[in-house]
Amino acid sequence: MAEIRVQSLRKEFGSFVAVQDSNFVVNDGEFFVMLGPSGCGKTTTLRMIAGLELPTGGQILLGGEDVTMLRARERDIAFVFQLFALYPHMNVRKNMGFPLLAQGMPKAEIKNRVEETAKLLRIDHLLDRPVSGLAGGDRQRVALGRAIVRRPKCFLMDEPLGTLDAEFRDLMVHELRELHNRIHATTVYVTHDQLEAMSMADKIAVMNRGLIEQFGTPKEIYDHPATMFVADFIGSPPMNFLKFGGSLQKGAKEIVVQGANVAVPEVREDFAAADFALGVRPEHIRFDDASKLRGSIYGTEYLGTTQIVAVETADGMLKARVPADIQLRMGEPVGLSFNPQRLSLFDKASGRAVHTSAREGVARGAAHG
Amino acid sequence: MSAAAHSVVEPSVTSKRVAAALVVVYAVISMIPLFWIFATSFKTPPDSIAYPPKVLFTPSIEGYCNLFTTRTRQTPEYINSLPPATSFCDETTRKRNMVIAGPSNFLPRFVNSLVIAFGSTFCAVFLGTLAAYGFSRFKVPLADDLLFFILSTRMMPPIAVAIPIYLMYRELGLSDTALGMILLYTAVNVSLAVWLLKGFIDEIPREYEEAAMIDGYTRLQAFRKVVLPQATTGIAATAIFCLIFAWNEYAFASLLTSGTAQTAPPFIPTIIGEGGQDWPAVAAGTTVFLVPILVFTILLRKQLLRGITFGAVRK
């Protein structure tokens, strides 16, 4: 197992820049997830780490060794493909033994290693079955087995749960995380599914248009998004934005939104007059008749323990997550108040988060800097 | 689309019968000439040219004897002086006042056909697979133009360039050589092979090779161990098409080969018997000639069918 260090990585396809200037470090044994919408460059980054694409610029270090221009087979990594890529003309045992065969390992040892790995994944009863007849989850396990059996420096996974149905996906998320806890393999996992990312990752990089918008723990990314893109991409429903103007001074603790004073975390940098956005998660909105910030109920989605309430304000629609037992009527006017310590401020022009006391100790987003 | 276009109606019994009858009639019409050739090969020369044609006859293998031997006419006294006939062929020949002088050229011609057809099929499929893989997986400069060029070599009937090829082969010393014929048939077939195999290889996901390359194999090893086994259907279908072409080819064979490298197709019509064409021997030659292609096609019929319908069904 090894640390993965990516420095100023860049990839161009003709005039299209797929990945621009990526920098991150995945520590030994960490489960790292690259999250982003399709076309954001996450798979390209993964394929460059694997050696399936060569970067246009930058460096990739695997356990301290520069592998940027090495062939895939010389990197000692394992890759789990979205569609698993199990060799259809081989049975489960041969599929799992295939990487060991390449190393010239003696047959008896291959047999032992394959059986040991199969037991770990609870697929030892399937070893002599053809892969074509396997169920989705078993294919997934065989693909994992083929990756694990070699004990490579790191695992790279490209949306491996993308083709499974929702119920089964939850189970596999759990299994994958459990497996990771047992073998502590450095893992890079690519997905567009925020729930997968949040539930499995030690660290997440949120990517957009070839840029890493934010790199951090799931909690940092959810609570303190570095950019408006991250705030909007993570969370369901996403973060609400309320726009406000004026300038921001160091030490300010209050802003004015739609004529109402709103307490915010202490601002830690100066900004000249510009457009800003106040970011508030749906669960941090409360209905408070005393508040000057007004809106009217537009609709509700009942979710059992909570409900999502759409509130129409002078600045557009907000979504609030409130307890399910609150009775609300359509068109009813309500006052809105926010949990001050959980608010984020963004500079609308750059999309970057304003540095505040709430963001103390949170790694600054790399993007748009 | 209306709903009717999607509904599947079980065909009525009558329409099924009509369809079956049509198929049977068509099959019979197609099979009659083949059956007639097969029957003729077991007739005696007088039966083969009898009028009205004989459907019922006493079978004889005289045609096969004549196919594989050459005979000379002798006087009855000479024939009587010979030791007793040792085989059926000897006996039949002597009844017609002839003796077997030696083997005919049919067997070597047949062997030529086998060598040239299978040799050129192997070369065309081998080159075609590699080229198709290259076009399918790599960024080849001007790939579309090159593929069109390859296809364009099929646009003209090959025989249109017969005379230049004839002159070229004479200069190069390739006339009437097995090597020359293998090169020629390979050149004609390789374009078909490239196009057909590219389709098949395009259908094999790249992830398989990428997985193999990550698993520690070189690209060539990945090609051999992962791509080839999955392309077998396509390769088999392509091989049959190439083989059928090379096996049946007549025009170039009769133009470029006359002796040592002559194939069976131009040889069979030249089988002359006593007093004109020896029809049973010609029919016997044709029947023997059909056997290899028949066996090959029956063995690989599933792949052939898939080759014909390829692209219509996604695995």
Describe this structure in words.
The complex is a heterodimer of chains A (369) and B (315). Chain A is α+β, with helices and mostly antiparallel strands and 369 residues long. Chain A is built from eight helices and 20 strands. In chain A, helix 2 packs across helix 3 (107-120) and helix 2 runs parallel beside helix 4 (136-148). Chain B folds into two domains: 1-104 and 271-280, no CATH class; 107-266, MetI-like (MetI-like fold, Orthogonal Bundle), CATH 1.10.3720. Chain B has helices at residues 3-6, 13-40, 45-48, 62-68, 76-81, 88-95, 106-137, 143-152, 162-172, 178-203, 207-214, 219-248, 251-256, 264-267, 279-299, 301-308; strands at residues 69-73, 98-103, 272-273, 276-277. In chain B, the strands form two sheets. Chain B has a two-stranded antiparallel ribbon. Chain B is globular and about 85 Å long. The chains are: A alpha+beta (369), B mainly alpha (315). Chain A binds chain B through residues 50-52, 71-73, 75, 77-79, 81-83, 85, 87-89, 98-99, 102-103, 146, 150, and chain B through 205, 207-208, 210-218, 221, 226, 229-230.
Name its key features.
heterodimer; A: 369 residues; alpha+beta; Rossmann fold; OB fold (Dihydrolipoamide Acetyltransferase, E2P); 2 domains; six-stranded mixed beta sheet; five-stranded antiparallel beta sheet; elongated; B: 315 residues; mainly alpha; 16 helices; 4 strands; globular
Low-confidence segments of chain B, ≥5 residues, pLDDT <50? 311-315
Q: What's the pLDDT, averaged over the residues of chain A?
A: 89
CATH fold category name of the largest domain in chain A: Rossmann fold
Side-by-side strand order of the widest sheet of chain B: 1-2
| Name of the CATH architecture of the largest domain in chain A | 3-Layer(aba) Sandwich
Number of strands of chain A: 20
SSE run of chain A: EEEHEEEHHHEHEHEEHHEEEEEEEEEE
State the helical fraction of chain B.
55-70%
